[in-house]
Every structure is written in structure tokens, then in C-alpha cells.
Predict the 3D structure of the following.
Amino acid sequence: MNFIGKRMAAESMTYFKLKPQEFGFKKKTPINLYLKKADGKLELTYKKGSVVDITELTNQTTQEAVPYLYSKANERIIYIRQASYFLEENLHQRKLSVEKKFSYVRSLISILIQEIKANGLDASLVRDISYISTSIYGLINTHYNEMNKITISPQAETEFEDVFLVTILSGAICKYMGWDNQRTIETVLMGAILHDIGKYYVPEHLLEQYQGNTSQTIDLDVKKHPRLGADILDEFSEVSEAVKQIVLQHHECNDGSGYPMGLNAFKIYPLAKIVAFANEYSEVVSDQRVKLKDGFKLFLQNKETVFKYDSSTIKAMVKCLKGEVLNKATGSNL
């Protein structure tokens, strides 16, 4: 079964975009950078290999009211790899704010998802995602108690914002549940990054109709995406069975009302429970564009939804939102 390059937004076929403040390279740019001018045409502003003055660039884009930089789509994979190396190198830089580190991860995940939607998944990109998961683990391991510094951008595309939030929250929840095994948390992070990969192969018109639609046919088509995602990952020996189970079960609920298998609490894979809850919580936050801590009040308003998820996961989320510091020796709260 070949899933490569099934669907791609027309506007993404030639260029991809990123915010100037999320462009982290302080030395030479690994890609050509363009700015959109008043007439709508793109103008080459920085050639590949040239030094980028971020402050000057940010000021220029602000003055000209052009919020994005653009680069050709065939350079997207170059950006992903170079950005992941940059993230790894700068995780422990004290002069780099937590907010800035999170913004780099948000940008990297956004462009990564664009690449998957455009060209599908291959073994090389799977390895990139594994490397990115390791980098994000390092970020969360250091800043797990600073999740409230994540801002929800009103301009962010919900699809990309959801993946970012699900990934970051899943990692933080692991920490607050006392899971300190790096390999386990990286597995959860990789599963979170890929949790909706099956949805990228569901026809766009069905996803649009699914919003607020009660059609049983559309409902069934969209709800196939977890199994479709697991089938896609089955093609790659580099993807662990644990990651596949996270993708397959990220819509399962404790009360058996989830999909695609309707599993109950005793049969749901433990790592999938974390990503399932993070997915639900991120939808509340990104849909309403509220702060992370304010999202919990909204989540609690629907009592039926609360009982669909693991109580220990919800308790860990409460600690996360409070920013509690853990005892490094025991994983317990100080």
C-alpha cells in the first residue's frame, strides 16, 4: 500500500511560510527566503548561505505588514533537518527564553506536518521525527513546569497548533505521572507528533463537512483515520509498535465510547491514554483560543467528557497547569 504524496493543499505546492520571529538561525540561512510584496509577488530577500539579521528582518516585516517569510517547498525538508539541529544545540541556552524555545518547536512541527501532507512519509523523515522527539524531550525535561508560558496564537492554523499542543502536553503529563524513562517519553512524543497522520489522507471535503455534521456516512469516513494512520506506519520498520498503538488508539475512551475499536479503560494502551487526553484538551484550548490554564475550566464543564479519560492523567494535567516542581530523585512533588 503506497501512501506517499496523497494530498496537498494547492497553495503549499510551491512555497511554505514561517514567522520571522520563529526563524532561529543566527548564522547563515540554510534556505532561500522570500518576502511577499504589496503586489502579492514574492521577492528573494536572503539567498541560501547569507547571514540573516533577525532583528532587522522582524522590523522590516512588521513595518510592511507581512507576517510571514516564504521559501520554496522543495527546501522544506532542508529546513526541518537544520531547524531540528538548531533546536538541539540551543535547548540549554539560558539567554534563549522558554517562550522562544516553544515557538521554535511550534514552527518546526508546523512545517513538519506540511511536509508529511505534501510528500507523505518515508524512512528518512521517520528518522527526522525520532530525532525531533529526542530534542523535544530535552526541552520538556528542563521546562516541564513552565507550560503556562505557551501562548495560543490567534493566527495559528488549528491543525498545526493541535499537533504542537498534543505533543508538548503529552510529554509534560508523562513527567507529572512520574515517568522518567527517556525512551518511554520519546515514544509518547513521537506518537503525539504522528497521532493524526491518518487524517491527512482523508479527503479535505469530508473533514470540512465533518465539522458540526451529523451524517453517519461522513462520521464513519473520518473516524477511520486512526486505523489508517496505524496502517501507514506499518510500512516502516523504524516505527515501534508502541507508536503505532498510540496512533491507533488516540480516540479511544475509558467508557468504551471511543473509536475505532470501542476499547474500555482496561484495554486501552497506557501511552495512548495520555495522548488521547492531551488531544481532547488541546482541542478545547485551540478551538476557544484560551490560555492553557483557562482551558481546564472549559474541559470540566462537560462532565461526560471528563469521565472518558484516565483520572491519573487528568490529575497530572492539574499539576502541570500549576507548574509544580518535581523531586528529581523520586519524580514526586516537592
